Each structure stands twice: as structure tokens, then as C-alpha cells.
């Protein structure tokens, strides 16, 4: 595996300019590597992250990939990972005209990664560097605890497909008006009115309307004004609310099962097992990193296919290779008779 030469890099830079002119938005820094099919087979179980932690299941998958390759040789064109800077890998025998098409495809992927809010939690970190630090930590634990490290990894990975990915997006982009109300207001409207004073629907609506009017006039002090006015009509409210707070059981919300186990497991909280919690955090964070890619596969590949077709067909460097391009593009974006082709389905959704 090695960086592309200056000639190929110049082609990539020109593709960047044309892609930006067409409307794609992405960071300027990228890294492109030339790889062999063997390199791709070795990296595929690690989702093309060279620095991802070692795990025996990955070794088994590599052997399986080798066996499949002997029976059904294939020649992957490219793969790109959402890192900082974005890293892409290319086959070692692509001609220039094919690289142009592939570069457009990759740049559209990068645009998708860097502008879709599903990936927003990955924008500020270099996962390749984080993965390297995680790998070193796991290797240190493996030298100390042996195969128990792999047992913990295997357990965590068995449930890492249900990490609380949407809670990250929900909390990051939820408008203020859709957040949970302050606890005091929540108690008043959902407990005190219906359960304590037995207010009917009309009275509850009047209270809510009055609070919204205060909120529109004085957003910062609306709650304080509302309860100040309320004290004369329901002087017992403060005492009831304070008693409710004292007797209310404390609950902690966990975004997913891995987070719950990591915090609440009596076994993991033993002093001698604290190291296991570090591994579970690594597995969970890795799963959160890959979660948006799993959830946007069709639209991601469709976006890249749409743009490589649009940009390359309008690129003067296609001349003389129209038939070759048409053949390859048809293989990539044709509707499959069996199974689903994310490239084909996604591209047609955009078209």
C-alpha cells in the first residue's frame, strides 16, 4: 500500500475543482492510496480502517475472503473511509480515465460524509488516530489478560448493532421547543393539575395558554413569573412539588444496552474487572462511528453514483472511452435481478 503518484494526484485535484464547480462541498485535504486486491481483502474485515484493533474473527474473515477470491476473482475499483482527512483506496491497475470516474465517485462520498447530519458526530475527530490509540490499549490488555480480552470483545460486538445512535442526533439537533419541559412545569401540567386538583381539560388548556403567552412575551423569565402568579391561587403547590422531588426515585437514562451494562453491571464494576469497561467503550464508540454508514448505505452509494455519472459524462477526458465507461457504469448501476443493488436504487431515487 502506497500513496498515489504525482500524476494521479494532479488528476484528483482537477476532479476536485470540477466537483466543487458542480456544487459538491468537501474539505480540501484527502489521502489516496494504491492497494492490491490482497490489501483490500486484508482490510475489508476492519471496514478498511488500517488502525482498527485486532480480533480473531477478522482473521477468519480474511481467510474466507481469500477462498472466495480464488473461486470468484474480483477487482474492486475503490473504497473510501470517513476520516480526517478522508482516505480512499484504489486498485493498482486502474487506467487514468477510470480513475477520473472513480475520483468523482469518491468525492461525492466525501461530500455525503461531511455534510449529512447523520455523520455530524464524526466531523470533529480523526477516527483513524482514535482507532490506533484504542488498538494499542487493547494490545496492552491482551498482553496482560490474554484471551479474556477477546471474550469481552466478542460479547460487546454481539450487541453493538443496537447502539443509541439516534440519541446523539436527537440531542444535537433537536429544537428547543421539542425538548423535555423543565421538571417543575412537567410536574404541574402532568401531575398536579390532573391528579391533585383534578382539573378538567378546559382548565388545563387555560393554564397552558397563559404560560405560552408569558413565554412569548418574556422567554427567559416566563417560568418564574408563571409560578409566582400561581402561588396565590395554589399556595400548597410548592410543598407538594418539593415532597415529590424528595420521594421520586432517581433514574438514569442510558442511550443503549452497552452503555447500561458498562455502568450498572456488578461484574464490571468490580475493581479487578475495570479494564473490561475500557474495551466495551471502545466497541461502543466504534459502532457509533459506523452506525450512520449502515443506515445510509443506499442513499450514500446512490449519491456517489449519481455524481460520478453526471460529472464524468460532462468531462472532456471521457473522449475515446465512452463505450468502456458505459459498460462499467452499467455493471455498477444496473438493477439486479436477484437481491438489491444500493448503487442502482440510490441513484434512481436521486434522479
Brief overview:
The chain has 351 residues and is mainly alpha-helical.
What keyword list fits this structure?
351 residues; mainly alpha; 4-stranded mixed β-sheet; extended; 5% strand
Structure, described:
The chain has 351 residues and is mostly helical. The protein folds into 3 domains: 2-116 and 296-350, no CATH class; 128-164 and 255-289, no CATH class; 176-247, no CATH class. Helices cover 63% and strands 5% of the residues. The protein is built from 16 helices and 4 strands. It has helices spanning 6-22, 37-43, 56-71, 96-115, 127-145, 148-157, 165-173, 183-196, 201-217, 222-233, 237-247, 257-264, 274-295, 297-313, 322-333, 342-350; strands at 2-3, 30-35, 78-81, 86-91. It has a 4-stranded mixed β-sheet with strand order 1-2-4-3. Helix 5 packs antiparallel against helix 13 (274-295). The chain is extended. The chain starts with a strand and ends with a helix. The model has no long low-confidence stretch (mean pLDDT 88).
Please render the helix and strand layout as text.
Blueprint: E1 2-3, H1 6-22, E2 30-35, H2 37-43, H3 56-71, E3 78-81, E4 86-91, H4 96-115, H5 127-145, H6 148-157, H7 165-173, H8 183-196, H9 201-217, H10 222-233, H11 237-247, H12 257-264, H13 274-295, H14 297-313, H15 322-333, H16 342-350
Parallel strand pairs: 2-4
Antiparallel strand pairs: 1-2, 3-4
The total domain count is 3
Question: Which band does the percent of strand residues land in?
Answer: 5-15%
- What is the radius of gyration? 27 Å
Output the structural class: mainly alpha
State the shape. Answer: extended
Strand order of the largest sheet: 1-2-4-3
Largest sheet: 4 strands, mixed
Q: How many strand elements?
A: 4
Amino acid at each position: 500500500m502506497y500513496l498515489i503518484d504525482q500524476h494521479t494526484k494532479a488528476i484528483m485535484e482537477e476532479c476536485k475543482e470540477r466537483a466543487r464547480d458542480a456544487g459538491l462541498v468537501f474539505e480540501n485535504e484527502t489521502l489516496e492510496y494504491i492497494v492490491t486486491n490482497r490489501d483490500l481483502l486484508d482490510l475489508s474485515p476492519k471496514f478498511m480502517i488500517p488502525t482498527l484493533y485486532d480480533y480473531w474473527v477478522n482473521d477468519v474473515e480474511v481467510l474466507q475472503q481469500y477462498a472466495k477470491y480464488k473461486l470468484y476473482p474480483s477487482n474492486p475499483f475503490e473504497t473510501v473511509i470517513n476520516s480526517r482527512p478522508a482516505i480512499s483506496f484504489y486498485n493498482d491497475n486502474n487506467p487514468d480515465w477510470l480513475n477520473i470516474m472513480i475520483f468523482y465517485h469518491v468525492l461525492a462520498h466525501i461530500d455525503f460524509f461531511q455534510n449529512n447530519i447523520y455523520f455530524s458526530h464524526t466531523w470533529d475527530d480523526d477516527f483513524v488516530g482514535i482507532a490506533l490509540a484504542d488498538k494499542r490499549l487493547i494490545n496492552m490488555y491482551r498482553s496482560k489478560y490474554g484471551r479474556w480480552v477477546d471474550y469481552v470483545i466478542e460479547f460487546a460486538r454481539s450487541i453493538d448493532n443496537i447502539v443509541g445512535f439516534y440519541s446523539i442526533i436527537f440531542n444535537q439537533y433537536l429544537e428547543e421547543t421539542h425538548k423535555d419541559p423543565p421538571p417543575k412545569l412537567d410536574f404541574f401540567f402532568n401531575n398536579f393539575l390532573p391528579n391533585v386538583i383534578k382539573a378538567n381539560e378546559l382548565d388545563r388548556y387555560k393554564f397552558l395558554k397563559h404560560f405560552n403567552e408569558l413565554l412569548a412575551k418574556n422567554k427567559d423569565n416566563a417560568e418564574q413569573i408563571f409560578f409566582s402568579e400561581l402561588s396565590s391561587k395554589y399556595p400548597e403547590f410548592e410543598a407538594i412539588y418539593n415532597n415529590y422531588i424528595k420521594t421520586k426515585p432517581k433514574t438514569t437514562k442510558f442511550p443503549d444496552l452497552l452503555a447500561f451494562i458498562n455502568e450498572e453491571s456488578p461484574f464490571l464494576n468490580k475493581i479487578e474487572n475495570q479494564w473490561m469497561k475500557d474495551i466495551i467503550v471502545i466497541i461502543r464508540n466504534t459502532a457509533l462511528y459506523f452506525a450512520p454508514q449502515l443506515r445510509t448505505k443506499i442513499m450514500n452509494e446512490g449519491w456517489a453514483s449519481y455524481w460520478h455519472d453526471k460529472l464524468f459524462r460532462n468531462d472532456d477526458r471521457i473522449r475515446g472511452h465512452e463505450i468502456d465507461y458505459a459498460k462499467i457504469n452499467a455493471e455498477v448501476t444496473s438493477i439486479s435481478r436477484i437481491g438489491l443493488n444500493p448503487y442502482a436504487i440510490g441513484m434512481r431515487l436521486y434522479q
